[in-house]
């Protein structure tokens, strides 16, 4: 058992690795944020099973590893090519981070239209610190929980995206987080800031991928501000190494009549958790969150939603589906809060899970917390197995049992797959899911 002192020591050891090369040390606002976060790491409660948000998700496995801050990845870079990072047929403006640091020769940002920034946060701290200061920390609370504070205290690099007023991008923005490990257990902490000014529109594709057998910890924190009348389609694919620990914390703030459409796709990692925190700042905003996840042997996949309706006349839609097999475990905790003043709120939340084996497990808890009286809100969840009658029907048409089961699983996931508006990504995810299902069938034969 890991003692409380050992847990605290784990975080302090990571803080002690902060070297003199952290960027922006001359910026007063960043230095203050770092100092506040460092203090918070020392004082905040460390997640444990008695906390409702961590009731089903232990961090003991994470704390048993001793991670070092990712060093210069120059040795790994020599063996990498653009083909290691791209999706075939995806025509995008691309930014690649290797072990948490932006890599220019693998990226493709030269032809960005006027009014659009896609680049390194570390570089922006030198080239445009004033703009960063305007938005940094405006949606994410540096002292909300210990992993957020840890990311802020050690801000080094990440992604800075800014789309000016009224600019509509003609191609997706693509961000690739590539983790390359050999023998050392490393910690990777991208800090990302995405800002769409009023009337802007963009599509953002993020992919987290990894290679190597050594464990690593990807602690990703992203702040997103969507301005009045702006629209962002945001796709996130988590396909980390099976040795990885992955934690993504997303903080979304929406102005009036803005639109955010997010899709979370979680397939990789030994331990993976994604937290969405959504807040509406003005009336008329709409947020749609879709998700598809799989979990197999030695995998835990965890998704948490915290959607806050604090102003009138906003709408949110959340639909998540999971496919579990082997001894895989999944956690889904979705919470929608409708405050007293948020009249005319419209909210819907659902979570459906398909269990392919008896040893798989899911803990699902959709929640509505409503204090207003003029609302339209509903939620629900299902957990079940493949319908034997549907399998029998397909077999009676000459389809073997393995193919029938795969077809039914793909049909179950089809609603989420169809919501992916970027065709190369949709095809990649469908192929990934089909291969996973094929491996499951083979292992059960």
Regions with pLDDT < 50 over 5+ consecutive residues?
Answer: none
What gross morphology would you assign? globular
The tally of structural domains comes to 2
**Number of beta-strand segments:** 21
Into which percentage range does the β-strand content fall? 35-45%
Work out the helix count.
10
Supply Rg: 21 Å
Sheet of most strands: 11 strands, mixed
What level of helicity do the residues show?
A: 10-25%
- Judged by helices, strands and strand pairing, the structural class is alpha/beta
| Mean pLDDT, all residues | 92
The termini sit apart by 38 Å
Can you offer a commentary on this structure?
The relative contact order is 0.09. The chain starts with a helix and ends with a helix. It contains ten helices and 21 strands. It has two domains: 279 residues, no CATH class; 59 residues, no CATH class. Helix 8 crosses helix 9 and helix 9 packs antiparallel against helix 10. Strands 1, 4, 5, 7, 8, 10, 12, 14, 16, 18 and 20 form an eleven-stranded mixed sheet that branches. The chain has a ten-stranded mixed sheet with strand order 3-2-6-9-11-13-15-17-19-21, covered by helices on one side. The protein is of the alpha/beta class. The protein is globular, with a radius of gyration of 21 Å. Helices cover 24% and strands 38% of the residues.
């Amino acid at each position: 058992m890991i003692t409380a002192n050992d847990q605290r020591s784990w975080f302090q050891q990571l803080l002690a690795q902060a070297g003199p090369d952290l960027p922006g040390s001359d910026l007063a606002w960043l230095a203050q944020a770092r100092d506040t976060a460092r203090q918070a790491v020392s004082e905040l409660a460390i997640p444990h099973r008695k906390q409702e948000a961590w009731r089903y998700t232990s961090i003991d496995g994470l704390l048993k590893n001793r991670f070092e801050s990712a060093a210069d990845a120059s040795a790994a870079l020599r063996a990498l090519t653009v083909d290691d990072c791209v999706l075939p047929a995806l025509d995008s403006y691309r930014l690649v981070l290797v072990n948490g640091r932006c890599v220019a020769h693998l990226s493709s940002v030269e032809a960005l239209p006027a009014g659009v920034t896609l680049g390194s946060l570390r570089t922006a701290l030198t080239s445009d610190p004033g703009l960063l200061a305007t938005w940094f920390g405006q949606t994410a609370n540096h002292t909300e929980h210990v992993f957020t504070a840890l990311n802020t205290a050690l801000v080094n690099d990440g992604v800075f995206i800014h789309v000016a007023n009224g600019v509509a991008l003609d191609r997706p923005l693509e961000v690739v987080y590539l983790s390359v490990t050999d023998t050392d257990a490393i910690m990777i902490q991208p800090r990302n800031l995405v800002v769409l000014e009023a009337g802007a529109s963009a599509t953002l594709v993020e992919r987290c991928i990894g290679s190597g057998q050594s464990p690593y910890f990807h602690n990703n924190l992203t702040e997103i501000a969507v301005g009045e009348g702006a629209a962002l389609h945001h796709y996130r694919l988590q396909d980390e190494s099976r040795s990885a620990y992955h934690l993504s914390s997303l903080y979304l703030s929406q102005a009036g009549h803005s639109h955010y459409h997010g899709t979370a796709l979680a397939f990789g990692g030994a331990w993976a958790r994604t937290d969405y925190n959504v807040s509406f700042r003005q009336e008329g905003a709409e947020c749609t969150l879709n998700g598809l996840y799989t979990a197999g042997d030695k995998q835990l996949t965890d998704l948490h939603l915290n959607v806050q309706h604090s102003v009138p006349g906003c709408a949110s839609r959340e639909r998540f589906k999971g496919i579990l097999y082997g001894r895989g475990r999944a956690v889904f905790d979705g919470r929608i809060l409708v405050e007293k003043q948020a009249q005319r709120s419209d909210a819907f939340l659902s979570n459906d899970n398909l269990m392919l084996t008896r040893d798989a497990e899911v803990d699902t808890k959709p929640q509505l917390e409503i204090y207003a009286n003029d609302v339209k809100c509903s939620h629900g969840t299902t957990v079940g197995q493949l319908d034997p009658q549907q399998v029998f029907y397909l077999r009676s048409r000459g389809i073997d049992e393995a193919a029938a089961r795969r077809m039914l699983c793909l049909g179950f996931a089809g609603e989420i797959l169809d919501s992916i508006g970027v065709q190369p990504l949709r095809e990649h995810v469908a192929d990934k899911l089909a291969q996973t299902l094929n491996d499951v069938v083979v292992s059960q034969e």
